[in-house]
Design goal:
about 180 residues; mainly beta; Hypothetical Protein Tm1070, Chain: A; 5-stranded antiparallel β-sheet; 1 helix
Length: about 180
Amino acid sequence: MATQSAVIANGDKTAIALPDDGVFPADEFHPKVILNYSNAQPAGFQARRSKSVDTFNISTPKNKYEKVFLFCMSGNGVSNLKIQFNYSDKTSETCERIVPDWYNVLKTTDVDFCYLAKNMGKWDKTNKLMEADHHYLIGVILRPNETKKLSSMEVMKGKKGVLTLWGVTLQTAGKKN
């Protein structure tokens, strides 16, 4: 992936890329999102990449949430995810999602996903534009029990696909985008 300034500096003026500051305005499908990257701070941890089986924890502020958005992409096919919601009352629930390959368009009827960035280009390690469009950064929409306070989530990725997790956004219960 590349930011828009990097793409323009590279001479690829028409390719769509990530915003320079990591900020995506709210729309009808997701709240305002600020991902952990920026041209102003180009070094350091920016995303989690899971190439095979992987398990990781996401701590959340203890609160009631209507939705949790995992902003990610899956390469080399789909990524199977199992998510365990851990609540402050020591109970838990699980759900599963199949994250589509980042090359594929989402189905219009699928309420478990939304777009964060559409129709982006793809660059190789030498900054050469490989494909000018048709790549998507999506939001996986999770719905924890909004009557309970969520304290953490455990995400378990299966063997298939390469998952890149760019960030997580929480939508408090009762709040709209």
